[in-house]
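Model it.
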Amino acid sequence: MRASFLAFGFIGIAVALPHPQDIDLDGVAAAEPPVIVTPPYDVASNIPSVLMTTSAAPIATDGPDSRKRSDMVVEKRDGTCAAQPAGSGPVPSPDTVAAFQSDPDLQAMATNAPTPYGYASVFTNLAASVNAPNYMGLHTLTSFDSLGCANLCDRASGCTAFNIYIERDPSVSPNSTNCPNPPSVTNFKCTLYGTPLTSGEAVNTGQYRDSFQIVIVGSNAYNKNSPPPAISGFSGPVELGGAINAPNSYMGYQYFPFSQTQGFDPATCASACTAQTAYDERHPNADCSYLPCIFFNAYVLSEDGVPQGLYCSMYNATWAPSYGNNYGQYRGSDRYTVSDSYSYSLLSPPSQPALSPSCTPSGS
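Modeled.
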């Protein structure tokens, strides 16, 4: 599993392929890994700021040089024994990690929680919260309220999934000398994401703050069932079973690793398609013709069950859903799978081959 922090990259290929195309897993492996975020433990709420806007560049090369991955550095700090927000959940007796992890009442909250309308359950009652890209914020609730967490997701533009869980937190900020292992409080946490979640991302089991151990139980995750939104200038989305595997007209692809600025947003692919057409119009063939992008396929590419990025395949012809039959591939022992696959078609495609208006044919 690859992971990086605060990184962005795209990858592309320059030629249309005459045969049914595979997912370019070598190109994906050379791109920046997804930006994985661990929500904070010591705050009641947290809404990250937007760092930048992802843009699509036209395909003009075989791809950028691979970049060195960066790792998150966790700064160790000692607390001040200051009081922390009071928790809303029950504290097991005795107040120990083992009692918290085995408490049947806490686990029943997760197993009995309703699945919100418009969402699908991803996992239930795990002992770990999600570390995932495109983290959109954390909210502390007053109860294990899956419906309330879903409402927060529905109100957050671009939110496609959420994780709700129960966390054992310190009642005061632990200090190694004066309060290394204070009594605990129980908090109900709700975190929002702009990418679909999987059980493979439930890896955050807690941490130590001095001698106090933060642990997690009752972790549930839910993905929205609804398709992505319509895009101006395109028809769609059309749901597909897999990635498009067309016999011709393939123009190439762009791949956008998930990050704090890139979630599952097919509008990114629409921008890539439009940018590709504009680039090809400026760089036509000798007879001034070029092939515009009139159809694209946007989907989530996952490695070993963990979402990695948004894959955008572009075409100069439209294809029926029956061609969406590439469900994934292997690269060595790593399994890559396709999910949330949708196609969009340009509403007013130009005639093909199109002619660049600023071009003079060779020999004329």
